[in-house]
From TrEMBL:
This is Uncharacterized protein. GO terms for cellular component: plasma membrane. InterPro entries: LysO. Pfam families: Lys_export (PF03956). It comes from the Bacteria. GO terms for molecular function: L-lysine efflux transmembrane transporter activity. Coiled coil: none annotated. The lineage of its organism: Bacteria, Pseudomonadati, Pseudomonadota, Gammaproteobacteria, Pasteurellales. Keywords: Membrane, Transmembrane, Transmembrane helix.
Amino acid sequence: MIYKKGKQWKKLLSAVIIGIVLGWLCNDWLHFPNGSNLYVLIALIFFVGIQLRNNGISLKEVLLNKQGLMMGAIFTLSSLIGGVISAFFLSMPITQGLAFSSGFGWYSLSSVVLTNAWGPIQGSIAFFNDLSREILSLFLIPLFMQHYRSTAIGITGATALDCTLPIIQNQVELK
């Protein structure tokens, strides 16, 4: 059995499609104040902390987790190596390949930084690159979680802290 939950991928795909359609339909009248997403992320991280503590996981265990630190180092290094290899095959400067791969799925940061550094085209590439990583990870987490837990978490990058966290939690029991 690949998926812990039988029709998980259908629910995820439906949520993505509904979100796209609602965003498109409500674009003219649904506007949030600038910076409001920061408060939502702060609340989300706050509740993650509460959930960790309720499961008996201390802050020390989170910050001094050898497996987590090793996994982060491996996925950081592999993303950067992937950026260098991509730069070679796409005939672009290595610095740009490294810049595109160093977003680690954090599209709201990397796209702005690269837009300011190299212009809107590179910023758009960074945005699409990181957004694609997040969307793909939504569907790959259930596939990898059963046998390759570290890979399932590592492919999510920065989104393991927010968007993909509920999917990760749904696929694995906390130890």
